[in-house]
TrEMBL record:
Domain of life: Eukaryota
Protein name: Aquaporin
Single Gene Ontology MF annotation: water channel activity
Signal peptide (residue range): none
Family stated for the protein in its record: Belongs to the MIP/aquaporin (TC 1.A.8) family.
TM helices/strands, residue ranges: 14-37, 49-71, 91-111
SUPFAM superfamilies: Aquaporin-like
GO CC entries: plasma membrane
């Protein structure tokens, strides 16, 4: 696996795959987490449906778009699973996880930048306004 890892670093195709994971993860965080924003939504069922569809369709679309380039992991846990089962090299594992993490940070930053200021107060937080107990939101 060592020579394969070193060969990966010299390959343009490898770096395109790493970039695809970065972009894919950024898009996932931007679109799917953006679907969770709602100033007021009296119907909890429509909120759950909206969020579920946004996450499911985002993951499906992004994985479909980049799977031929990088494998479409878009999640460090998925990449870890591929590493444990020896489907990816240590170098690919490490760089995918680093770039997925950076992509998630960039996606969250873009989401915060485009979110109106009156929504930002609850962005990326759990709250009890939906009737959930403090134990359920933590």
């Amino acid at each position: 696996m060592g020579s394969t890892s070193l060969q990966d670093l010299k390959s343009k195709k490898f770096w395109v795959a790493v970039l695809a994971e970065f972009v894919g993860t950024a898009l996932l965080v931007l679109v799917a987490c953006g679907s969770c924003l709602s100033k007021t939504d009296p119907d909890l069922n429509s909120k759950v449906t909206r969020i579920s569809l946004a996450f499911g369709l985002s993951v499906g679309s992004i994985v479909w778009a980049i799977c031929n380039v990088s494998g479409g992991h878009i999640n460090p846990a998925v990449t870890f699973g591929f590493f444990v089962t020896r489907k990816v090299s240590i170098v690919r594992f490490l760089l995918y996880v680093v770039f997925q993490t950076l992509g998630a940070i960039v996606g969250a930053g873009i989401l915060k930048a485009v979110t109106p200021s009156d929504y930002v107060g609850t962005l990326a937080t759990s709250d009890t306004t939906t009737g959930a107990s403090i134990g359920q939101v933590n």
